[in-house]
Amino acid sequence: MSVWAAIALTMTASACMNLGLVLQKRGIVSRVQLVPHGAPKFRRSRHTPIWYLGLGLMIGGYGLYAAAVSARVAPISLLQPLSASGLLVVALLAVVYLKERFDAGEWLGVGILLAGVVLLGLSARGPQQVSTGIETARYLGFFAVAVALAIGVAFAARAIPGRSELLFGILSGVLFGTGYLNTKALALAIQDHRTALIVVAACLMAFGLLGGLVALQLGLRSGRALIVTAVNLVTNQVLVVVGGLVCLGETFPQETLPFSARIIGFGGILGGILLLARVGTGNTQIASADDSVWTAESKPVSL
After folding, report:
1. I need a surface site. Which of 101, 164, 197, 232 has the fewest CB within 10 A?
2. What is the pTM of this model?
3. Residue 190: what pLDDT?
4. Which of these, 239, 240, 251, 11, lies nearest to 131 by C-alpha position?
């Protein structure tokens, strides 16, 4: 598989996964009851068929992503930042379908992110540094730190409910980043016939992907789809790019123009995502058309 085929698969996979995420957000139906002398309290949640369609798209998209990163010629430190292009799908559908509202700063973030994706794609011109293989000591140390970070953020998310939108985004990003990076590590271990690393990478991949999915669902229940997704993306982008350089022997292009495009493009992607995920943005409550949400003033509002 060529690097361009891997790029095309990655961007298609990201569009599928992020479309699935939007459908999952829409497919979570929460019913709320008023508690006397207190704030509204969630009674229960259920999943509609749209939620399951979204889950299917996420699983299918991940399958395409796994095929892309299995190519040794395509470094994951290039492919993973390009997967941020799927956030453009979320931005469009969050406005049109979920009825969320963005301010000027958030639209600026979308524009910067798009420019970063274009520059990152241009950095693929010329020869690419292939993954040389897993460096065992660095690999094990890196993921020991990543798992410890995930545990710390999970405890913080329980202890600071007012920041759940941000913290669940970070948690899902650390976990998904672990899953994505180990998707590449598993492919390399299989190609190099390293049995012990195949087992370790498979376990870490399953832990990261399943844990990330759970953390993402918790984040979607408590915050805006775009913000949770943006925080998730900026976290897993950094973890995967750093992990590819530290654990898998990847490097940035050596030529001046591709190197500059790679650095500026990655910086633009991170900057655009950070603008979208600014701390302090308010939550927009989304409900299904057949649900009633009780406000603090005890008035029913049909959404």
Report:
1. 101
2. 0.71
3. 92
4. 251
